[in-house]
Amino acid sequence: VFRPARIVSSRPSVQAPNWQWLESSRSSWLPQAPVVARRPLVCQAAAEVVEADTVAASKGGVAHLRFKRGSVFKVRRVLDVMRGRSFEDAILMMEYMPYRACEEILKALKSAAANAKNNNGAQKSKLYVSECFADQGPILKRFRCRAQGRGYRIAKPTFHLTVRLEERE
């Protein structure tokens, strides 16, 4: 709180302000932090270790493709069809669907299956697509010359793809 030491004035009627009222009423207008009972840190750390063990116990694999050229909306259209299917069904669908995005998704799908098999010892016949999503990447902006000295902006979008496979029990 700013408290001036003394206000000097040429007029005798001006008095120095009294700052005592501010300190006496501070507790009423300042928000008070709620009192929360805290648990010991040891128990919280033990709980986090147990959660980490359960996550690591699942047999599955993840593959990421980043900065791939293409529209994220066109990729999501294909991913919505593939989500929740078995690995074999997803491979067949990606090979025979007539979309260009299927090539990149097929790469990620095969890579995730290889990661699950080699890193976690999963069987490819038991794998299914538990999670797959595409996020928007940076947009490359280019300009094309047009008539009468104008220039039109051309957007070249990119996307990031993530495919997660898990083993069915």
Concise overview:
The chain has 169 residues and is of the alpha+beta class. Helix content is 40%, strand content 25%.
How would you characterize this protein structure?
There is one protein chain. The chain is of the alpha+beta class and 169 residues long. The chain contains six helices and five strands; from the N terminus they run H-H-H-E-H-H-H-E-E-E-E. The strands form two sheets. A three-stranded antiparallel β-sheet has the order 1-5-2. It has a two-stranded antiparallel sheet with strand order 3-4. The mean pLDDT is 82.
pLDDT < 50 runs, ≥5 residues? none
Task: Report the end-to-end length measured between terminal Cα atoms.
Answer: 64 Å
What is the N-to-C succession of helices and strands? HHHEHHHEEEE
What oligomeric state do the depicted chains represent?
single chain
By helix and strand content, what is the structural category? alpha+beta
* Number of helical elements: 6
| Adjacency order of strands in the biggest sheet | 1-5-2
Q: Tell me what portion of residues adopts beta-strand conformation.
A: 15-25%
- C-alpha-based Rg, rounded: 31 Å
Shape from CA axes?
A: flat
Largest sheet: 3 strands, antiparallel
Query: Helicity level, as a percent range?
Result: 25-40%
Write down the overall mean pLDDT: 82
| Number of DSSP-assigned strands | 5
